[in-house]
Design brief:
By secondary structure, this protein is of the alpha+beta class. The chain contains seven helices and six strands, in the order αβααβαααβαβββ. Keywords: Nucleus, Transcription, Transcription regulation.
């Protein structure tokens, strides 16, 4: 992504700097971002923001109690870590926040609910690998990555469970509550899919200002952009 953005900026004659951060989001501070006064700032988070939803919810999972969590009235549990992070980002007044997350609901208290949701989601994911990854080494690497996600979803509880994917509708509630507004995205879905994979089966669908990357009719990833 950094390489492509730098080339795009050069073509437009714009000064541009891309700073990848190899640090867990829970440890990220504003000082690490090296923001300069007067520059236009953009954030990109790809498949990592959901780890901030980790909390010690074992009481809820084991006994069905409310524990210490509270809901904002939309069925979305409040999360201190997420609120603090989005508040920090908003305080820097970024021009855009690009978010890519798995379009799945794995942040559920009951194991059986996570298992059923994961079964449908990863069945579609592995089906897409079957049809589009001819290189065995590359495919094995992808399968191992998804295997670690599945293990986390079904075998871990409390703070140890970090793969807490949520659907786009819940992210809309969280970002809206933090003072962000969605920016409508548009793309030529067919062209983007052909450029990315050249394979049948994938498609991109516009939904509520965001984009859904789907395998046939099953959304796999949600892409959205936000301003404040």
């Amino acid at each position: 992504m950094g390489t492509r953005l730098v080339k795009e900026a050069e073509g437009l004659g714009m000064p541009f700097e891309f700073n990848p951060l190899n640090v867990p989001l829970r440890d990220l501070t504003a000082d690490m971002l090296k923001v300069w006064s007067g520059e236009a700032l953009g954030f990109v988070s790809i498949l990592c923001l959901h780890v901030l939803l980790a909390e010690d919810d074992r009481v809820e999972a084991n006994f069905g109690l409310g524990g210490g969590s509270s809901s904002n009235g939309n069925g979305v549990k409040d999360c201190k870590q997420m609120g603090e992070f989005l508040g920090m980002v908003k305080s820097m007044s970024p021009k855009v926040f690009l978010l890519v997350e798995q379009e799945a609901d794995h942040n559920l208290n009951r194991l059986v609910d996570r298992f059923v949701e994961g079964l449908h989601y990863y069945s579609a994911m592995f089906d897409s690998l079957e049809g589009n990854y001819g290189c065995e080494e590359e495919r094995v690497g992808m399968e191992e990555m998804f295997g670690r996600e599945i293990e986390d979803i079904v075998a871990c509880e409390g703070l140890e469970r970090e793969e807490r994917h949520e659907r786009y509708g819940r992210w809309m509630v969280r970002f809206g509550g933090a003072g962000f507004k969605p920016v409508r995205l548009w793309c030529d879905g067919k062209q983007m899919v052909e450029e990315a994979s050249g394979k049948d089966g994938y498609k991109i669908v516009n939904e509520k200002a965001g984009l859904m990357i789907c395998w046939h009719e099953r959304p796999l990833y949600a892409v959205s952009a936000w301003i404040c």
